[in-house]
UniProtKB/TrEMBL annotation:
Residues 1-146 form the UspA domain. InterPro entries: Rossmann-like_a/b/a_fold, Universal_stress_UspA, UspA. PANTHER family: SENSOR PROTEIN KDPD-RELATED (PTHR46268:SF22), STRESS RESPONSE PROTEIN NHAX (PTHR46268). Pfam families: Usp (PF00582). Belongs to the universal stress protein A family. This is UspA domain-containing protein. It comes from the Bacteria.
Amino acid sequence: MKNILLPTDFSENSWNAISYALNLFKNETCTMYLLNTYTPVIYHVEYVLVEPSRYGMADAVRESALEQLDEFKTRIKKEFNNPKHAIESMAAFNNLISEIKDIVKEKAIDYVVMGTKGATGLKEVLFGSNTVHVFKNVKCPVLAIPDGFDFETPHEVLFPTDYEINYKDHHIKPILDIISLYNTRVNILHATYGYDLSEAQEENKKVLEKYFEKSAYLFQSISNQTIEEGINNFQLKARINLLVMINNKHSFFENLFFKNTINKIGFHLNIPFLVIPSKNNKT
């Protein structure tokens, strides 16, 4: 049984991500947690220090959040009506990242599924700041769904890696769990720059082979391209339905996303993106 967390701000972008999750796990027994976090408009230090209920505002905002969650819940039942899926609503007076971290631990969440759109609505910024903060701070696989992306069966998965990771179960299980649901092939992509793999990289590659031995997989390599060029070019020649990366400190993932290049691969990346933390809640 899977536990899936679905943060929502009640936008169509977040509904789109919810729809994707419901389709992806349609044959799995799941509990889907719909989460809305809220802070009143006049939220500031004095407000927190004084009992919020004195103003009666938190209650009003909470009621509104719960009503909208009920509307989404009704919409899910109307459009999907899947007896395998239990839907639970959660409204929290908290910031999004803190609440997600708490729920991931408390409910043993397997995946957080959310939309990618930034609050600015700018098309050229693929990942909104919330999504990037979740990538960075939450120790749980996060599946980010681009705005307007209609569900596609993930037949072809692209998994770029530098083989610098000592792969463990918590790195690979989230991939295996998804590809086991479908007839999926994993394309393991490595960018080479004229150097042979080190002994450690060769060992890590063998570990990956072992993990995927019962799955369809291909080792792919590109030369003289940056990893973002490689991702974009590979997408052009193969119909990739899901991009997967491990957020490993000091790896190319960090270079791509956390060094003023948040939207570097955003211009052409219009497919779901699964980000797996290098450490999980148990490590």
